[in-house]
Amino acid sequence: MQLPFTHEQFLDLFGQYNRTLWPAVLLLWILTVWGLWRLYRRRPGSDRLVAGLLALHWAWAGAVYHLVFFRRINPAAALFGVAFLLQAALLLWRGAFRPHLSFTPSRALWGRLALGLIVYALFYPKIGWLFGLRYPRLPSFGVPCPTTILTAGLLFLAPRREARLLGVIPVLWAGVGGAAAFLLGIRADLALLLAGLLLLIYMLSPERRAAGDAA
């Protein structure tokens, strides 16, 4: 596959993104950690809060990363941005405005996988650093790939009927964005491919009715 940009242009783009927006990225990380803490402590309103934060992640990645930054080197970013904004709207609709979306942490298999992906997404920039990238020229928090990994993890905690609606765009992006692991040498994105595959399996597997299922 021939990309319309080079590896160096890709990393330069992250350098511009991080130097310009690091206060907002840090705030987004803090808000996300706070929301997840409330979710795992089962605080009132945590489902709506986390759904709203996920919507913020997708809106930020769509409008700011894709439409403002990535479009400078890849014309397809305009289409990606629209898809991400659509995902943000779906999350707001299902999780905030009409709260059908709930998240149930669990020690069952899907709950453990969820926690693993959530932690990975939170430390995604550090993982990129461990693989040899250096700040500011590395993918940081709030860009599409950690957003998708975080979303996959949280959807493992949601009812499958909601995951089937809200997981389509994340699965598609896992395929598109996961190519960066091979074409651009972003090895931290290998987890994106795994997250997409696991989310697809979760979406296609039957709903369990037994009590204690993490959904």
Short description:
The protein has 215 residues and is mostly helical.
Folded structure, characterized:
By secondary structure, the protein is mainly alpha-helical. The chain has one domain (9-204). Helices cover 69% and strands 0% of the residues. It contains 10 helices and no strands. The protein has helices at 7-40, 46-69, 77-97, 109-122, 124-130, 144-155, 160-166, 168-178, 180-183, 190-204. α7 (160-166) crosses α10. The protein is globular and about 45 Å long. Mean pLDDT is 94; it is low at 210-215.
Keywords:
0% strand; globular; 10 helices; disordered C terminus; 215 residues; mainly alpha
Topology:
Blueprint: H1 7-40, H2 46-69, H3 77-97, H4 109-122, H5 124-130, H6 144-155, H7 160-166, H8 168-178, H9 180-183, H10 190-204
Helix pairs in contact: 1-2, 2-3, 2-6, 4-6, 6-8, 6-10, 7-10, 8-10
Q: Percentage of helical residues?
A: 55-70%
> Overall 3D geometry?
globular
Number of strands: 0
Alpha-beta classification: mainly alpha
Instruction: Give the helix tally.
Output: 10
How far apart the termini lie comes to 37 Å
